[in-house]
Design brief:
Keywords: Hydrolase, Signal. InterPro entries: Galactose-bd-like_sf, RhgT-like, SGNH_hydro, SGNH_hydro_sf. GO terms for molecular function: hydrolase activity, acting on ester bonds. This is SGNH hydrolase-type esterase domain-containing protein. Belongs to the 'GDSL' lipolytic enzyme family. By secondary structure, this protein is of the alpha/beta class. The protein folds into 2 domains: about 180 residues, Sandwich (Jelly Rolls); about 230 residues, 3-Layer(aba) Sandwich (Rossmann fold), CATH 3.40.50. About 25% of the residues lie in helices and about 20% in strands. The chain is built from 10 helices and 17 strands. The strands form 4 sheets. The protein has a 5-stranded mixed beta sheet, covered by helices on one side. Strands 3-4-11-6-7 form a 5-stranded antiparallel beta sheet. Strands 14-13-15-16-17 form a 5-stranded parallel beta sheet, sandwiched between helices. Helix 3 links the parallel strand 13 and strand 14. It is globular and about 60 Å long. The N terminus is likely disordered.
Amino acid sequence: MTYPRRALPLALALALSLAACAHGGATRGFTFSSGQPGAVASEVAPGMAYNAARGFGFEAGPEGAGKPFFFSSDLEEGNYNVTITFGAPHAASTTTVKAELRRLMLENVRTLPGQYVTRTFTVNVRTPQIKAARGIAPGVVALKVPRESVGEARSWDKRLTLEFTGVNPSVRAIAIVPVKTPTLFLLGDSTVCDQSNEPYASWGQMLPRFLKPGIGVANLGQSGETYRESISRRRLDKILSVMQAGDTVLMQYGHNDQKQIKDGKGGPFTTYKAEIRTHVAGVRAHGGVPVIISPMERRSFDERGKVRPSLIDYADAARQVAQELGVAFIDLNAMSKPFYEALGPEKSKRAFAEPRPGHTDNTHHNNYGSYQLAKAVVSGLRANQLAVAAFVADDAGSFDPSRPDPVESFAVPASPGFTTVRPLGDESNK
């Protein structure tokens, strides 16, 4: 972390001042310098730990110059534009920004010594509380304890936590402004939700990086869950209670729904389809745009180097109900197979989590694999000509699953935390 001895950048100060007027002072600004912070920004001193009375500060993390660091600010639920000025007076820096639980927001922002660069992104902050809405009773999301209430608390607290990683990550100032923007909601299992620790990741965590400012991503997926649990734990109700007309909901389940067959409680062409219909009906009733996504395959190859299908029934059922209801459909199952096959049986391990040396988790992806699958989802948004595709970032590029980005050139830095504990899910498929 660096603290250049300069005042808050003029453009950032003006933005904060105007935002404070427009939003009744509900904006927050911070300057990481030793100069005068001014009326619209608070000065953050080195080592200033977060406390509730102040409402901002650094979170615990690796210590020392050039190490990753975490900074938090108390905020109410909603979408915010976050504008960050990067750079250091006497050193080059490369900074990647992740929000809350490792949601990739900005990738490798580079500055030369004495150079300052400003970037903006939109982030969503949420709480478990469900406010009464049309057809929705008040209450709370039934969080998994202690997984969500402790280990993943950053996803649900009234606080925005930003993670800064890279080579000499350097921040000069931060402005946080509440905004009324569209929201892109996500529902899904461990391959979609925000994973809290390396080596696990999901396409849902990578998706914000491929979007322009002006839309917030609210990821309500959770490890081990199904369409049925989305209903029973009131994750769907939470979305419907805050959804605005025109908001989009991406839904991808299937991996854990297979357990319902073993338990004699359903199947892909019966209960699975019925539960998708329930989600689609709820989203449409509240003016939203539902999008059904088929579950990606697991990593398993036959003797010819082709992926063995393990979720094809759920992919087919998802496609069928999408056609029956006239809903946009993204076939991630179909796109995942040529992606894995392009890498091959051995190299494809580098797209999946390795919690222990020599042990590959063949269901859950790492940062590289999740990044590629996020690009596949973005290509699906474009192919379906959804309104949300207008927010795809200019540098998102195109995606051909048979020609993924070279794994050797993947450069998103890992987060500090690491776990050997596998995400919740179907233990028979490791």
